[in-house]
Amino acid sequence: FPVTIGITYGTIVNADIATAAAIATTKLGAGAVLQVVSATVGQTDLSADGYVGSGASITPSSTSNKILVMVDGYTEKISGTSTAYAETELHRATTFISELNNATQYQYTVAARVPFSINYLDSPNSTSSTQYRIYHDEISLGATYRYYQYVITLLEIKA
């Protein structure tokens, strides 16, 4: 005669999965967040072109995956005139990928602190460590800018 063990076939619930179980990323659907990296970059003063700190790096697990880059910070013109301005850009390593602001501090007086923020979905097409950072591109010379501490967060998104 048949014996019933109490197993329901075809349905897996959370309780069926051991706490220490490792689930392969191949089992996750598109859009799953595979890893998160976050860094806080300290204050940097610039009066010429240059990088604002080292940013953050992430190593994608597949060339088809995307990286969601989120950056939030503040900048202030600490010397110069209101007509002096710069561009704030997002770079992958040393390569320009997006402009955050094409007129950073334009028409602002000295000591006006202004926020900057970006959300950018990148396709680095790589499985090597990939660095993202902010670049200050001086357009009209004669001012010094202070980039206050900013936070950069990188999320690997499964394609």
Give a brief outline of the structure.
The protein is mainly beta and 159 residues long. It has no helices and 10 strands.
Order of helices and strands: EEEEEEEEEE
Radius of gyration: 23 Å
State the major sheet. 6 strands, antiparallel
> N-to-C terminal Cα separation, in Å?
49 Å
Strand content: over 45%
Task: Please estimate the helix content.
Answer: under 10%
Taking pLDDT < 50 over at least 5 consecutive residues as the criterion, the unreliable ranges are none
Number of E-type strands:
10
Structural class assignment? mainly beta
Mean pLDDT: 87
Q: Rough shape?
A: elongated
Number of helices: 0
Structural summary, described in words:
With 159 residues, the protein is mainly beta. The protein has no helices and ten strands. A hairpin with a 2-residue loop joins strand 5 and strand 6. It is elongated and about 90 Å long.
Provide keyphrases for this structure.
4-stranded antiparallel beta sheet, 6-stranded antiparallel beta sheet, 10 strands
Secondary structure: elements and pairs:
Elements: E1 33-41, E2 44-46, E3 50-58, E4 66-79, E5 86-92, E6 95-104, E7 113-122, E8 130-138, E9 144-147, E10 150-157
Antiparallel strand pairs: 1-10, 2-9, 3-8, 4-7, 4-9, 4-10, 5-6, 5-8
